[in-house]
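Protein modeling request. Please complete all fields; requests missing the sequence field cannot be processed.
Requester role: graduate student
Desired output: 3D structure, token encoding
Chains: 1
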Amino acid sequence: MNDKTIAVLAELDPEKTRENYGRMAWILARSSGAQRALAIGTVDGYTTIWLTDAISESDGSVLTVESDETQAAAARSSVDRAGLEGYVEVRHEGANTTLAEYEDNYWDIVVLNACDDPLRLWYDIRRTLRPRGLLVVGPSPEFEGLLEEISADPSFVASRIGAELLVVYNHES
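Delivered output (173 residues):
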């Protein structure tokens, strides 16, 4: 990670309250060899920067979507200041609209930070996440019902890491 990227991350999270989540997304993306990543609910771009840094080493790319126009602009600015603009596309649109554009088994890793209807979104994520792909669900009370839905699906294994992170593995082959 270069100095520019580190400086932007420090600016976005001066108290380091989101650092563990960002690092976990980075570790999972890097260790899985992910090439195609989707970040949903980018907010200010913090997690997207971690994810993009991990994937940029292998010339992969990140698509991040944010339904709030102000937050999408903030994320775009953060990514640009971090020097990662060549590896990430920031879109101002809903996640369901984005996922509808992609074929089955497309994404290597999906990071879910925020969304309006996670249970509805789950079905599109499930369809587009490749076998052996990863879903990382961030700390948000709106995701509580998602664990039950995922756990009921025999193609996926889910585990909480601490109180704030859910990692899901698609073990279909």
